[in-house]
Specification:
- With about 450 residues, the protein is α+β, with helices and mostly antiparallel strands.
- The chain has helices at about 20-30, 45-65, 75-85, 110-120, 165-185, 225-230, 245-250, 265-270, 320-330, 360-375, 385-395, 405-410, 430-440; strands at about 30-35, 40, 65-70, 75, 95, 105, 130-140, 155-165, 195, 205-215, 220-225, 255, 275-290, 300, 310, 310-320, 330-335, 335, 350, 380, 400-405, 415-420, 425-430.
- Strands 3, 7, 8, 9, 10, 11, 12, 13 and 16 form a nine-stranded mixed sheet that branches.
- Helix 10 (about 360-375) links the parallel strand 19 (about 350) and strand 20.
């Protein structure tokens, strides 16, 4: 992509309404624009990152055996009346009446709808287990939307739902999602700690939040420091095998959100040198809630003994749009974002120091073509802006690598590569610079 053709409305001034780093940088870098309180338009740069986050989430759901579908944003209120949640959910639910006087709602979550879909087609224990998911926009009418996409009213969410014969089987599905989430967050460049959590309005008796530690986190969390450094299970994990050891290894050490914190237990179980008390950002939440929805909504299957019983269910959410803010909170400096390569909007920023100079323009074009062919998704700054402004913009938007090409360097047969995360600069021949970037040699 050529910057002269791209839509990148960067801001020089820090927006006054932005209270945390991710909100400030997303506005300054032209990733989002607020259209109403807690509701954002995703501009091209932000949209590219959002789609990459979404794709990683999708790949890890697929790897765990979940099957993708898509449910609508609007839901019939009658479904929620069946489960008993329509009146109980509270003012965060946006309730709507259509022209035919039917009560609808803009879905804050999808337990009722997925239960209705499942019961329409599944009758026998032979139809189980099932893991279904979708990635869809949600709406929760927050009283005080704040912190940009971290607590907005409209947000993109991956929500998965499991259907199993009994509690033992349901916990196997729970463990699949537990492990899949650890792999997902690692691929996104995040260290997420699973913590015992309150089930809230979803309900149930087993729940974990996945938290990344950050000074701007919305809640206080307590955990064993060894959990922060514990790696993910790995992409070669056998999801059809016994995953209980994966879960046990990460739940044997203390970790809890403030709602579930037991200070006496924390001190008894965790050596003083390993105790962490910090702020955290929730990036995922998983629940096992048994027959909470299937029983009132009559989602039953016939068991091998011929008896009809409600299925056991769980739900598993990842805040896809919230993750973008969380990644920035974890990866930034005073100059701007520092995107992990897995979600960067472009792989390499090519800076033309003298747009309009025939030799420099051709060198930039050749580098652009080669990096495009290598799948590195380059962004070529071919504008006539001053060099200082070009460097500042590239630092702000946080591409992993910058390739700087100018007439002076070309006369010496040189170009410069800057690694955004470390600030390292490498001066080498243009051909070597392009070849090494294409090979990922600076990673």
């Amino acid at each position: 992509m050529r910057l002269s053709r791209f839509f990148l409305p960067v801001l020089k001034e820090v927006p006054g309404e932005a209270q945390i780093v991710s909100h400030r940088l997303m506005l300054r870098a032209g990733m989002i624009r607020q259209e109403a309180a807690g509701i954002y338009a995703w501009l091209p740069l932000g949209h590219r990152v959002l789609k990459k986050i979404e794709q990683i989430v999708r790949e890890e759901q697929d790897r765990a055996g979940a099957v993708e579908m898509l449910m609508p944003t609007l839901q019939l209120a009658d479904l929620w009346r069946e489960s008993g949640r329509y009146d109980a959910y509270g003012p965060e639910m946006l309730r709507i009446v259509d022209r035919h006087e039917r009560d609808l709602l803009y879905g804050p979550t999808n337990e009722e709808m997925i239960t209705e879909i499942f019961r329409a087609y599944s009758r026998s224990y032979k139809d189980l287990p099932k893991l279904l998911y979708h990635i869809q926009w949600k709406f929760r009418d927050e009283r005080r939307p704040r912190f940009g996409v971290m607590r907005g009213r409209e947000f993109l969410m991956k929500d998965a739902y499991s259907f199993d014969l009994d509690e033992a089987a349901a916990r196997m599905s729970y463990n699949k999602m537990f492990a899949a989430y650890l792999n997902t967050f690692q691929r996104l460049g995040l260290k997420a700690v699973p913590m015992r959590a309150d089930t809230g309005p979803i309900g149930g008796d087993l729940s974990h939040e996945f938290i990344i530690l950050a000074e701007t986190g919305e809640s206080e969390v307590f955990c064993d420091a060894r959990l922060v450094e514990m790696g993910a299970p790995g992409l070669d994990l056998d999801f059809d095998g016994d995953l209980q050891p994966v879960v046990d290894a990460r739940t044997a050490l203390y970790a809890a959100t403030d709602e579930m914190h037991d200070s006496a237990r924390f001190e008894a179980e965790t050596p003083a040198e390993h105790r962490v008390s910090a702020r955290g950002i929730e990036v995922g939440h998983i629940f096992y809630f048994g027959t909470k929805y299937s029983e009132p909504m009559k989602a039953v299957v016939t068991h091998p003994d011929g008896q009809d019983r409600p299925v056991h269910m769980g739900s598993y959410g990842v805040g896809v749009s919230r993750l973008m803010g969380a990644i920035i909170e974890a990866h930034h400096d005073e100059n701007g974002c520092i995107w992990p390569e897995s979600v960067a909007p472009f792989g390499v920023g090519i800076i033309n120091l003298k747009a309009g100079d025939a030799e420099t323009d051709q060198a930039c074009q050749d580098a652009y073509d080669a990096l495009t062919l290598a799948g590195k998704e380059p962004l070529l700054d071919d504008t006539d802006a001053r060099a200082g402004g070009k460097f500042a913009t590239m630092d702000l938007i946080g591409l992993p690598y910058q390739l700087v090409i100018g007439p002076r360097g070309l006369k010496e047969g040189k170009a410069e590569v800057k690694v955004r995360a470390t600030g390292e600069r490498h001066e080498l021949s243009l051909a070597d610079a392009v070849a090494r970037l294409a090979e990922g040699a600076f990673s």
